[in-house]
C-alpha cells in the first residue's frame, strides 16, 4: 500500500509552500482585489522562474517532463493562499489541452512558450448563464475563422491564447486554438464573485483560429480535459479548505465572548470538527483522483467527479463557516476571510456546477454496475 | 501511488489466502438469523482455529497466544478473512478493549490466567463502564466498592453492557472514594460474571433485538488482587480501554452499500420512471458515494503510514462520525424510495432483505455506542485541532457534592 506522494513530490510541495508563504500573503492578493493589478505579477513571475508552468509539459517542448502528481501538490499550495495568478487557466486547462490534443505543430509552437511563461493560455468554454453542453455551444468555426461569444472566460482580459470549445456544425463540438492578440477578438472584463481572478467576455468576429487534432471527438476530448482539471482544482480546494479551517480555528482561539474564548463553545468546536471531517474526505478522494489521472486509468471520470464533489463540499463549507466564526469582522472588506469565501464559490462552479458533476458521477456508477 | 502490497506483504497475503481457503467457510445467507447459542458455538470454533494457526490477535506477542505480527499483517488478514463467513463479533469488545487493559494493568499471574483463553475464544469478556447516570460522562459513575479486609464489596448498577448475558468475565470501573473529585475516586477490577450478587437482565432495544443488558451488583465480593491498577487510578486505567475502543469501533458496519442503493434505485419506480432517473435520488447517491469512497481511501492513507512503518495521522478519527450518520441517512432514504412500502420490515417482502430498515435501526445505536457523534466531534476539535476542552462545573468538586440530575 503506497497511497501517498513521494518524498520528491513532497519536496516540491514544500518549496512552493515556502515561496508562497513568503511572496503571496493575503496583502499581496489584496492588491488584485483592489484593482491595483490584474493578477499578482511578481508571484506569477516567481512561479515561472521556478519552472512550475512547465511542470507537466514534456522536456522536448521545454517543460520539466514531470507528471500529474507534481501538479497536484503545486495546486494544493496555490489553493491554500488563494493566489491571484492565471496558473489554473494556463496550466491545467490550456497547456494540458494542447499537450493532450494539439497537433504536432501546435505543440511545437505553443507548449515551449506556455512552459516558459512567455504567454498565458486559457480555456473558453461557457457561453453565459447556463450549463454549456455539446448541444448548446453556439460559437462556430468555419474556413479558419471563429465567430461567437464566450463568457465567463478565466483570465480572459489578458490571456494570450485560448483553447475554444466550438460547435462542429451539428456534429457536437471541437476544440480550436485562437491567438487572442490577433484581430477579430474583443475583450471585456466581467464583474464576478471572485474579482481576485479575472474573467472576461470574449467576442470573436472572424478571428483566425485553428482546429486541434481528432475532430469529431471533441466532446470526449473536453470531458478528458475537464476530468484532469477537476483533480487539479480539487487539490486547490483542499488547500483552501485547510487554510480557511485554520484561519477559523486561530481566530476562535483568540476571540473572547462571555468571558471565555469562543473556541471553547461547542457550536464552534463542532463546526471546526465538521470542517476537518470534510477536509479529510476531500483529501482522500483527491489523492485517488490524482492516482487515476497519473495512471491514465479508465476509472478517471468517476475518480475525478468524486474528488471534485468532495472538495467542493469541503471548501464551500469551510469558506462560508470561516466567515461565520469570525462574526462581524469576518464580513468586512478588511478581513481576509473573503478570499476563501469568494474562491470557494468560484472553484465550485469553474468547470461545472456540483449538480452536474454529481449527475455525471452517478452515470459512471450506473454504467459500472450495469457492466 | 499504488495500492500494491510490498513483496513481504504479498507473501503474507498469499500465505493467509491459502490458509483461509483450507480452513474458512464460504459466505452464505443462511447464517443471517442464527440463534445466539449457534452463533457462539461457531464463533468460538473459528476463533480457536485461528488461534491455533497464529491468526488470532496477530499483533500480540506469541507468549500471550497472539501471532507476534505487525499491524499491517493484521489488516491484511482482516481483509482476506472478510471474504469468508468468519464470525468474530462476540469477541470484539473483549479482545479489542478488555484484554488489552488486563495486559497493561493486570498482574503476571492474571495475564497468564486470562489472556490465552480469551485469544482462543474459550472465554468472552464484557465492558462494564456505562451506568444509568452517565455514559459519555462515565467518570460520573455511582457504582461503589467498599473495602472489607482483603476484599471489596461492590454495589450498584451498570447498563448497556453488550454481551453481558453470554460473557464469562468483565472489567468494571467503580467508585472507591466519593469524597474526592470524580476522576480521582475510581478503581478498576476484573470480575467473574458468575459471582454471587451479579444479576444480568437483557434490555430490549428499540429494534426489538437484545444485545445489551443491565447488570446489577448486590454485595458482590471481589478479591483485592482482582484490582487493575492502583486504588484511585481507575480513570487512567479506563482510558487504556477507551483508547482501544476507538480502534475497535472505528471500522464501520456492513449493510446496504451505495452500490446496492444504485441497484435499488434502478429497479424501484418513482414518478413513473426508475428512481435512478430522479435528480434528487441521484444527488443523494453521489453524496454517499463520495463519503463511502472517502472513508475507504482515508483507511488506505492510514495503512500506507503503517506499511511504511510511520505513525498514522489523526485522519482516521473521522471514521465513525461519518459512517454512523451515513448508515442512518442511507437506510432512511432507501426506505423513502419505496414510498409507503418502505415501512415494511420483513425480509420476505422488503427490498434488500429489509437491510435498509435494519440499518436504520442499528445506526441509531451506532451513533451513540463507543462515543456519541457529539463526543467524537469534541475529540476531533480538542485533540486534532487543539481547541480547549469544555468548561467543567464538576472539576474540582468532590463527587458527593456534584450537581446531578435524576
Ligand atoms: C449499542 C450500544 C452498545 C453499548 N455497549 C456498551 C458496553 O458494552 N459497555 C459499556 O460500558 N457501555 C456500552 N454502551 C453505552 C455507551 O457507551 C453510552 O450509551 C454512550 O457513551 C452515551 O452515554 P449515555 O447513554 O449515558 O448518554 P449521555 O451521555 O447521557 O448522552 C445523551 C446526549 O447528550 C450528549 N452529550 C453528553 N455529554 C456531552 C458533552 N460533553 N457535549 C455534548 N453533548 C454531550 C450526547 O452526545 C447525547 O446526545 C453501549 C451503547 C449502545 C447504544
Question: What is the radius of gyration of chain B?
Answer: 23 Å
Helix content of chain A: 40-55%
The order of strands across the largest sheet of chain B is 3-6-7-10
Please give the largest β-sheet of chain B. Answer: 4 strands, mixed
Helix amount of chain B, in percent?
Answer: 40-55%
Show the largest interface.
Answer: A-B, 48 and 53 residues
**Structural class of chain A, please?**
alpha+beta
Q: What's the main sheet of chain A like?
A: 7 strands, mixed
Cα-to-Cα separation, first versus last residue of chain B: 55 Å
CATH architecture of the largest domain in chain B: Up-down Bundle
Structural class of chain B: alpha+beta
SSE order of chain B, one letter for each helix or strand: HEHHEHHEEEEEEEEHHEEHHHH
End-to-end distance of chain A: 27 Å
User: How many strands of chain A?
Assistant: 9
Walk me through what this model shows.
- Chain A has 3 domains: 7-115, Acyl-CoA dehydrogenase/oxidase, N-terminal domain (Butyryl-Coa Dehydrogenase, subunit A, domain 1, Orthogonal Bundle); 121-216, Butyryl-CoA Dehydrogenase, subunit A, domain 2 (Beta Barrel); 219-370, Up-down Bundle (Butyryl-CoA Dehydrogenase, subunit A, domain 3).
- Chain A is built from 11 helices and 9 strands.
- Chain A has helices spanning 7-23, 26-33, 41-49, 68-80, 87-101, 104-115, 218-254, 266-294, 300-326, 337-349, 354-370; strands spanning 121-124, 140-142, 145-154, 161-167, 173-179, 185-189, 199-211, 256-257, 260-261.
- In chain A, the strands form 2 sheets. In chain A, strands 1, 2, 3, 4, 5, 6 and 7 form a 7-stranded mixed beta sheet that branches. Chain A has a two-stranded antiparallel sheet with strand order 8-9.
- In chain A, helix 7 packs parallel to helix 9.
- The mean pLDDT of chain A is 96.
- Chain B is α+β, with helices and mostly antiparallel strands.
- Chain B folds into 3 domains: 7-87, Acyl-CoA dehydrogenase/oxidase, N-terminal domain (Butyryl-Coa Dehydrogenase, subunit A, domain 1); 126-244, Beta Barrel (Butyryl-CoA Dehydrogenase, subunit A, domain 2), CATH 2.40.110; 250-371, Butyryl-CoA Dehydrogenase, subunit A, domain 3, CATH 1.20.140.10.
- Chain B has 11 helices and 12 strands.
- Chain B has a 4-stranded mixed beta sheet.
- In chain B, helix 4 packs antiparallel against helix 5.
- The longest helix of chain B is centred in the C-terminal third of the chain and has 29 residues, at 279-307.
- The model of chain B has no long low-confidence stretch (mean pLDDT 92).
- At the A-B interface, helix 7, strand 9, helix 8, helix 9 and helix 11 of A face helix 7, helix 8 and helix 11 of B.
- The structure holds flavin-adenine dinucleotide (FAD).
